[in-house]
Amino acid sequence: MRRMGRSYNWIKMNPAQMLSVGFLILIGVGTLLLMLPFATKDRHHLSFIDALFEATSAVCVTGLVVVDTQTTFTVFGQIVLMVLIQIGGLGFMTFGVLIAIMLGKNIGLKGRLMIQESLNQLSIEGMVRLVKFVVGFTLIAEMIGALILAIRWSSDFGFPRSLYYGIFHSVSAFNNAGFDIMGQFRSVTEYAGDFTVIMTLSFLLIIGGIGYIVVLDVKRNKSLKKLSLHTKLVLLMTLILNILGTVFIFALEYDNPGTLANLPLKDKLLGAFFHGVVPRTAGFNSLNTGELTLGSQLVTMLLMFIGGGSGGTAGGIKVTTFVLIFLAVRALIKEEDEVSLMGRRIPKDLIVRAFTITVYSIGFIFFILFILSITENAPLNVLLFEVISAFGTVGMSMGLTPELSATGKGVIAFMMFAGRVGPITIAFALARRKGKAKYKFAEEKIMIG
Amino acid sequence: MRRMGRSYNWIKMNPAQMLSVGFLILIGVGTLLLMLPFATKDRHHLSFIDALFEATSAVCVTGLVVVDTQTTFTVFGQIVLMVLIQIGGLGFMTFGVLIAIMLGKNIGLKGRLMIQESLNQLSIEGMVRLVKFVVGFTLIAEMIGALILAIRWSSDFGFPRSLYYGIFHSVSAFNNAGFDIMGQFRSVTEYAGDFTVIMTLSFLLIIGGIGYIVVLDVKRNKSLKKLSLHTKLVLLMTLILNILGTVFIFALEYDNPGTLANLPLKDKLLGAFFHGVVPRTAGFNSLNTGELTLGSQLVTMLLMFIGGGSGGTAGGIKVTTFVLIFLAVRALIKEEDEVSLMGRRIPKDLIVRAFTITVYSIGFIFFILFILSITENAPLNVLLFEVISAFGTVGMSMGLTPELSATGKGVIAFMMFAGRVGPITIAFALARRKGKAKYKFAEEKIMIG
Ligand SMILES: [K+]
Ligand SMILES: [K+]
Question: Domain residues of chain B, as ranges?
Answer without folding.
Answer: 2-433
